[in-house]
Structure formats: structure tokens, C-alpha cells
Amino acid sequence: LDTYSSASKILHSFAATMRIQSNGSNGNPKGIGRRRGTPPRGGGKMFPDQKMILVLAAVAATIFASGLMLGTRIFGSPQVSDTNAASSASQTSLNNEHSSPLVAATSKIAVSDVQRLIMESAAAEAFEEEERRQEEDALKHGDKTLALHLRGALVPGDPNYNPHHHIDDTLDVDDPLNSNQEIVGGEEKQENMIENMHHQFAQALDHEKHVIDSAVKKGVTKLKETAAGVAKKVALRGAITKDETAEKLPNYPYMRTLVSKDHDFTKYKPLGGNRFIEYLDGDSPYAMTDSLREQSDNLARSRRVHVVNAMKHIWKNYKEFAFGMDELHPISKKGSANWGGMGTTLVDALDTLWLMGMKDEFWEARDWVRDHLSHDKVGDVSGFETTIRSLGGLLSAYDLSGDKVFLEKADDLGAKLFKAYNTPSGLPKGSVNLKTGRAHNMNWNGNAYIVAEAATQQIEYRYLAKATGKEDYAKKSEKVFDILDKITPEDGLLFEKLKDGGENGATFITASKSSFGAMGDSAYEYMIKLYVQGGRKEEMYRKMWDKAMNGVHEQLLQKSTPNGLTYIADRLNGGRLDHKMDHLACFMGGSLALGAYTDPSGIDSSRAKRDLKTAKALTYTCYQMYARTQTGISPEFVKFSGGNDFIVPSSAPFYILRPEVVEAFYYLSVLTGDPIYREWGWEVFQSIEKYCKTKYGYGSLHDVNEPSMKPEDRMESFFLAETLKYLYLLFDPDSEIDILNKHVFNTEAHPFKIFNN
Predict the structure, then answer these.
(1) How many Å separate Cα 406 from the centre of its chain?
(2) What confidence category does residue 503 fall into, taking pLDDT thresholds of 50, 70 and 90?
(3) Fewer CB near the terminus (10 Å): N or C of the chain?
(4) C-alpha angle with apex 109: 107 to 111, nearest 5 degrees?
(5) How does strand 566-568 pair with strand 557-559?
């Protein structure tokens, strides 16, 4: 009784605190505790705070009180001394069965005693339905004693609940358990029932163990999936509510207040890793409702402003110090022509300006393209990089604005780059001289073809072919995938290097590795995106994608130690795995999600569900690559080894403003509607603002675990074209971009309209 009283006082205090803490910015209280029954569709109204507190207190206090009383009656009573040993063993086993799934699922969560009570009440609720079913079975077989016990074992909130585990006070006249004996205050008048009460409980305990054993087996899988999310919900707000439209999942607990226009990023401190563990395995732990999406959209708009401000900060200085140059150096404020003097930053950023509503800057940049952009005197360039950045940038600007200046310049550049395809096999050489047309592969790569470079130009050339009517752009570039389709191994995994086989095509250099990082990544990306670009009608690309994803799941997908982070390893010569993952490989979170939502068998097919779950789990790992560093920013790659899942190797602690992780956030946010990806993206953006921003732009980081180090004097054009664009679109619920029905992005985040025929 003392424990009962103490628990009640603690629960009332805790519930009152949670009521205050859970008030939103608009003053509307969130739901506290649990509730039964079927909630209104759409997650409508909640119980008043007072009622929720009472339910919460009653549930938790009953766990204490009923356990104490039941134990005293059974184990302290002489009538059942001969059954003590058996009952004690049964109770121990019962407790273990009750706690094991929750303990396993929440072993990494430190929760208070009061919060643990709430968790246990959640488990108890899962077993109540089984008790009700057993009560019905007992009645069918004429066992009223067992039925009475089961009726008395109900928890607070049920209309027949009795807090002392006695036979019910309030049996209806028509209730099948009513034997017409008078029942007052929970005490039977018939003396023989009093004498047999303890024996009934002891007997019922043995039966109840079998009942709950069965329930645990059925419920343990569901508990494992949801307990982590429930525990996180409790730890943060102590509120557990349900929504019918999302299979009664708890409501999303991470909604923040709107961001002010004068938000001070210098005060931001990275929040650390190992959070949001309910997303670890790719689950969707919270209810997605229309109300939640509206809140998320409003919050996103308040954040979107700051991404635009970042772009304005860069563009102001680019215009003043390096307008028309390939790059602006963000510390020295110098311009450089390191891409051949093609205005790479300007061209790469055109569609970002358009999408952010910076139309004055866009048209000013268009005038420079019209009046000054020339490719006639440019020497050797990377065919791959120039295609995805410059050709892609020009074509996307044309697609969005309709201004033919961009198409004319794109055709001029495409014709020069396309000379790289004049090879015996039709595979494009890696480097081409725009002035002379001579092309060659790189000496450092043994003059081999790189699969990611050869297979990441088709979206651009297909669009250029459609826009200009010059079909060769499409036919010659598509031949690369015809070649790859014929030589791809059964597991669908491509080797990163190719050897020209003349008219017979090409062969893989099998001594090279298979990777979803550098030199392999975007070849897979273009499989699924070419399928989308073609209106989902070209089966070859889809089959290549699905075959490759089967290979990923069967051979490359791994789990880290000790926390089970999902990652894609590299496969080395001989089939050995290199347990590392590049930042580049995080594009797979977005591509897997896109593949799932465009699966010909539907999003509910087993394959689509598998791929979407992997996309979410992989993206959680990529988020942890950011969250676990001192700056909250990811290194170039991580190595997965024992201890704490992964380490930042000494050879790759740097960050060059890469976009792939926020790209995955964008795809999953749009496709699933889960606001968590916006939350993670906001953390990443705040870290970029805190540690990468300079007086004239944003610089790379030499070591992501050295927060005191200043940024470096280098800003890649893809920071404007991809990183800031994906961050902006992540926070832009009003975007004209539609990645399922209207648009496809190239690997540089340049959007093109898909083909309708």
C-alpha cells in the first residue's frame, strides 16, 4: 500500500509536468498517456488532460498494487502453501516473458522508473485482448471460475475493472458470469467462495502463464518493431497516442517551433548520434496524418528562408568577385577557371536560382550565357563531369524557363562532348578536348573505361535528342546500357572498370571492385532514372535495376556491430568485402525509395517493401555519419568495424560539401511524408552554416572531428547545384517539382520533365 501511494503521487506529479511540457507553441495541449478504443479517422480529437492523467496514473499504479496484493494472497496464504514452489516458478517465467521483448527493444534507452511503468502498461494492453478471448472460451466450456478471474484481471479503463483483483463489483443482471449471488464492494457473501479464493488465484496463475506465453509469441514481433518508437516517445514527452489511419502507431514526437527569420546559427551545437533509434531498421514508427503534414510544411517554410539566404550569400559574392568564372574561392574571394572557363558555377546553379525564386539573378545569369559563354577554346575536360554539370545545367534551365538560349548552348556543348563516343565499341572516352575533338581515357586508370562515367550521361543526351530532334544523341548514349545489359553478371553487380571489345562491345575487368561509391555509384542510379524518364515503359532499365538490387541484398548489404546500422559494403577482387561506405553511396537511400514507389508490381509488393525498408535503414546510417562527428558533418567515407559501428579513417576525415545524404532525405521526405527527414536535414544545414560558412561563401572542411578548424578555400559548384537545392526542396512543400509523375533528376540534381511518349 505504501508503494501504491508513492507511485500514485509520482505519477500525478509526472503527468502534471508532462502536461506543461507537451503544450505546443499555440497553447494546445498534446495527448498524454494511452487510450483504448478506435480513435476518429485522421487522428482527430484527444482526451482532456485530466482524464488522460487519471488513466495513466491508474494503469501504472495498478501494476504496482495488484502485483503486491496478488503476491501476498498467493504466497503468504497457508491454503496454498503446497503450490508455492510451482506458482513462484510460474511467476518468474511469466515476468521474464513479459519483459523480454521490451527489454530487448529498449536496451539502449535509459528511461526513468515512471516511464518504465508506462512501457509495461503498453505491454499489458497487448495481452488484454488475449485475456478477453480466453474469458469467452472459458464461458463456452462452463468454467466460470476462470472466467471470473480473467474478468477481474482487467486493467484500469475497462468498465469491469476491479482494482483489487476480486470478482467484479458490478456484474450486470444479464452478464453470463452473474450467478445471482449478491456482490457488494467486491466481497462475496457465500463463504465457500471466500475459502476457495486463494486457490482460484493460484490455479488461474498457471493457466494465465499459458495464455500469456501464447500472446507473447504472437505479439513479440510487433513489440520489437514498435517498442523502440514507444520508448523514444515516452522519453521525450511521456505521451503515447494512436491513429487509426496509421495502424494505431504513436504520434510523431519531434515537431519543433517555427524558425525565426533572424535565427542565429553560430549558437548551434551538434546534438550527437545514437538518437532516433526507432528508425534504425527502416521502420515507420509514427502515425502520418494530414494535421502532422500541415505542421511539418509550415515548419519547413520557416526553414526554407534560411536556405535561400545561404544561396543569396554566395551569389552576392560570386557576382561581385567571380561572375562568369568556374568557381569562387570562399576565403580568398578569387575566381578560377579550373573547369576550362565555361562558367561552371553559374551554369550549374541556374535551375537552383529558378527554383528558389531568385528570378532576377536567373535572368542576369541567362544574359551572361547568351553573351559570353563559349566552348570553342576549351581544352581537355572530363566528359562525365561536364555532361552532368554544364550540359545538364543548360538543359534544365531550358526545361524550366523555355528560353532557347539555353538549348542552343546545350546543343553546341553536346556536339563537342559527343565526339568521345567515336570508339570501336561505342563506349565514351573519359576525357575529350572540346577544341580539337580528340578523346582519351585516363592514364591513372590504366586507360580503362569507368562504368559510372560511361553510364551516367544518358538522361542528358536523351533529353537533348528530344529537344533538338537529333536522335543520335539518344541512340549512341543508350548503346552503353545495351552493352552493359549483355555482360552484367547474374548477381546484377557491375565491376567498376571496362575494356573496349571493339564491335563486340566490351568486357568487365573482373580484377576491379564492385562499388556503390566512387566509380560505380551513378551507373545504378541511371538504371532506375532512365526507366522513370521514359515513362516507365523501357523494361530493360527496370530489369537491370531490380537485378542489381537483388545482388545488393544478397551480397553487399551488411549490419554493423554493435548497433546494427545498415550499410552497403564494397566487393573486392575475389569476392571479399571491404566494410566501408562512401558518402557518395548514400544516394541509394533516394534511388531505392524511387525504385520502390515506381515498382511495376506496386508499392505494396514484397520487393517494393523490401527496397523501401532498406532505403530508410540506409538513410538512417547516413544520418548517423553526420550526427556522430564533432561538427555534425559527415566525412568522405567511414569504415565499419567493431566497437562503435564505424570509425572516421585518417585518410578521409574531410567534407567537400557533398549532397548525397540530403538528396536521400529529400526523396524519402517527398515519397513517405515522414517529417523526420526534414528534421535531420535541418541539423545538417545548421552544421554547414556553423562550420562551413565564410565571409564570401562556404568552404570544405579538412577534418569533421575538428570543430575549431577553419573552412578551406574551395567551394565546388555542386554545393549550389545539389546540396543547397536538395535542402531547399526538402523544406519546400510548394515546389513545382514532381519526382513521381513529371520530373527526373540527373545525378547533378538538374530536373528534366519525363517523356510522355
Answers:
(1) 36
(2) confident
(3) C
(4) 115
(5) antiparallel
> How many CB atoms within 10 Å of residue 725?
32
Query: Collapsing DSSP states into helix, strand and coil, what is residue 420?
Result: helix
List the end-to-end C-alpha distance of the chain, in Å, as a whole number: 76
Task: Please choose, from the candidates 231, 238, 247, 287, the residue with its C-alpha nearest in 3D space to the C-alpha of residue 29.
Answer: 238
In three state form, how does the secondary structure of 37-49 look?
CCCCCCCCCCCCH
Do 331 and 370 meet the contact criterion of CB atoms below 8 Å apart? no
What is the spatial distance between Cα 737 and Cα 730, in angstroms, rounded to a whole number?
A: 11
| Residues annotated as part of the active site | 385, 521, 636, 660
Number of H helices, E strands in the chain: 24, 19
pLDDT in tens, 179-217: 444 334 444 444 454 445 445 555 555 555 555 555 555
What is the pLDDT at residue 445?
A: 87
Residue 543 Cα distances to 112, 639, 744, angstroms:
51, 31, 19
Which amino acid, one-letter code, is at 406?
F
Looking at residue 139, its pLDDT comes to 72
Specify the pLDDT at position 81: 37
pLDDT in tens, 510-534: 999 999 999 999 999 999 999 999 9
* Nine-digit cell string for 425: 565499341
pLDDT digits (tens, 9 = 90+) for 233-275: 433 333 333 333 445 578 999 999 999 999 999 999 999 999 9
- 395 grid coordinates: 538543359
On the question of a cis peptide bond just before residue 562, with omega within 30 degrees of 0, the verdict is: yes
Per the CB < 8 A criterion, the answer to whether 426 and 476 are in contact is yes
Look-up: residue for cell 444479464? 174
DSSP class of residue 323 equals T
Q: Which three cell numbers stand for residue 346?
A: 553559374
Per-residue exposure over 662-683, b if at least 16 CB sit within 10 Å of its own CB, e if not: bbbbbbbbbbbebbbbbbbbbb
Mean pLDDT of 452-472: 98
Q: In whole angstroms, what is the distance from residue 245 CA to residue 214 CA? A: 28
Residue type at 285?
P
Q: What is the mean pLDDT of residues 687-696?
A: 98
User: What pLDDT sits at residue 266?
Assistant: 96
Sign, CA dihedral 542-547-551-553, equals positive
Cell of residue 585, nine digits:
553511396
DSSP 8-state code for residue 721: I
Per-position DSSP letters for 604-617, written without gaps between them: TSHHHHHHHHHHHH
> In Å, what is the CA distance from 294 to each residue of 30, 33, 368, 512, 674?
16, 24, 40, 49, 12
Task: Please list, in sequence order, all residues whose beta carbon lies within 8 angstroms of the beta carbon of residue 329, skipping any fewer than 6 positions away.
Answer: 322, 335, 336, 696, 697, 713, 714, 715
* Alpha-carbon distances, residue 47 vs 19, 159, 160, 163 (angstroms): 12, 17, 21, 22
Mean per-residue pLDDT, 559-573: 96
Q: Which helix (H) or strand (E) holds 124?
A: helix 113-140
**Structural contact between residues 409 and 373, judged by C-beta atoms closer than 8 angstroms:** yes
Burial class (CB in 10 A: 0-12, 13-18, 19+), 49: buried
Q: What single letter denotes the amino acid at residue 244?
A: E
What pLDDT is stored for residue 249 in this prediction? 79
Pairing of strands 580-582, 637-640: antiparallel
Residue type, 265: F
- What's the pTM value of the predicted model, to 2 decimals? 0.70
728 residue type, one letter: Y
